[in-house]
Write a structure and sequence with these properties.
Radius of gyration: 20 Å
Strand order of the largest sheet: 1-2
Oligomer: single chain
Structural class: mainly alpha
Distance between the termini: 42 Å
Number of domains: 2
Strand content: under 5%
Number of strands: 2
Largest sheet: 2 strands, antiparallel
Length: 185
């Protein structure tokens, strides 16, 4: 499959085209982020977010530009946004008074009420995960509950790593749709 053909098919929501584009450009985007973040998990997460955002916005892609450059730009912007969020969360915890720096560090240990709310939220999340097809449930469970790497999941399920990446990407999108539905309980 040619890149231009794959992009056109992806614009028509062709899953094979999405997989082809993911397989073709995964290493480029991941390598770019690995150099920036110097952290494999962060690089993987940002790369997944990059493809997710790119596939959501594929109809806006202008073929005057190189597709790889478009993906790298999206990836760079996601990373910059994450850094900004991180810095703003740190800055919001720091106050200055008369040249002395005072750090307001609240007690963030969970109260009994927090624990109860988390337990209910986890129960709801698990209930919503069960609405997914079994193979999507499995990759979500292995990645987020057992905290396995993509490589470990690939070995566990005896599937190519790119299949795992696509499955996880799809599972997260479907789960997000379930979670954001009104009256999802």
């Amino acid at each position: 499959m040619e890149i231009k053909e794959a992009i056109q098919l992806a614009k028509e929501n062709n899953q094979t085209a999405f997989k082809f584009l993911l397989d073709t450009y995964w290493n480029d985007v991941y390598g770019f982020q690995l150099k920036r973040t110097e952290n494999e998990n962060d690089a993987e997460d940002i790369t997944i977010q990059t493809f997710s955002k790119a596939f959501d916005k594929i109809e806006t892609y202008n073929d005057k530009y190189v597709f790889k450059t478009w993906l790298i730009t999206i990836s760079k912007n996601i990373h910059i946004d994450l850094i900004r969020k991180y810095k703003s969360s740190i800055n919001s915890k720091i106050n200055s008074k008369d040249d002395d720096t005072v750090y307001d560090i609240p007690d963030e240990s969970p109260t009994p009420e927090d624990k109860l709310i988390r337990k209910q939220n986890l129960a709801r999340l698990l209930r919503d995960i069960k609405k997914l097809k079994p193979h999507y449930q499995e990759v979500i469970h292995l990645r987020y509950f057992q905290e396995l790497s993509y490589n470990e999941i690939s070995n566990e399920l005896n599937e190519p790593m790119n299949n795992i990446k696509v499955k996880l990407l799809r599972a997260k999108k479907l789960l997000a749709q379930i979670l954001t539905k009104p009256n999802a309980s």
